[in-house]
Input
Amino acid sequence: MTGTGLVTFGEALAVFSTPAGKLRHATSVDVGIAGSEAMVAIGVARLGVPSAWAGRLGADEPGALVLTRLRDEDVDTSAVRTDRQAPTGLMIKDFRNTDVTRAAYYRNGSAGTRLSPEDVPEEHIRTAGVLHLSGLTPGLSDSATKAAFAAAEAARGDGVTVSIDIEYSHALWYPEDAADILYDLVSLCDIVFTGEDAARLLGFDGEPEDLAAAVGELGAEQVIVKRGPRGAVAELHGSRYDVPSYPVRSVDTDGADDAFVAGYLSEFLAGTSPDRRLRTAAACRAFSLTVPGETPGLPDRAALELLARPR
Output
């Protein structure tokens, strides 16, 4: 890792999904991995920027699956901890119809829920260009909450840029529990990605432009409000940007936000302009929509050239 690279810290899961229909009717499954921070690490690596993922996995085949897939993508896994007392978390995904998927998570007592400040990869963070977190990790457990804050504080202490995607999951915790913790964690970050609902969870209101400005008042110089097919609105270094979406036929929305984040951070680490960062982020999101699954849809540079210009 160098000062131009990315370190991500959080949970990763093994994924088993049906090619079509409900699991009860399936005779085979597709095997993959998931986890917001791990997906961003892969997305950044595919775009030619060094990346690492750190977390805790069980000493089991699902854990070996996660490590193998990450290493195959040239993601540094040298800071990953193996937990011999807990299993790797699982996600089971089936397709209800062409537009709706259903995911069931099996993570109670998993290795990921046992993340703690001792797992924070301080040496990796010290030499990184960006530490990226998600709002999902602090929802896993009290010790994972402490770990997320410890990682952010370690990065700030070393002058490393801290990035977060404020993701919220009803399956992990209640809104009233999440709001104060995420508010405090966002206050430690330099780059903030959020959806409109997540920003409102923190107590902000108004149009997307208002949300971007309000979140920025917590201290971040770069705030991007993701709006799905309606593009995004950003407040970057005191300037406002509207980000159009690319016209593509959507096949699977899973992983689209992670692709957006990976596109933006890859360009930030490469030192490109705010406009270039946002255009690449939108292109990555669009490409990910055209391919089923979280990992397969993350593009490389050549894939992005296949897209038309945004409207």
Summary: The longest strand covers residues 90-95.
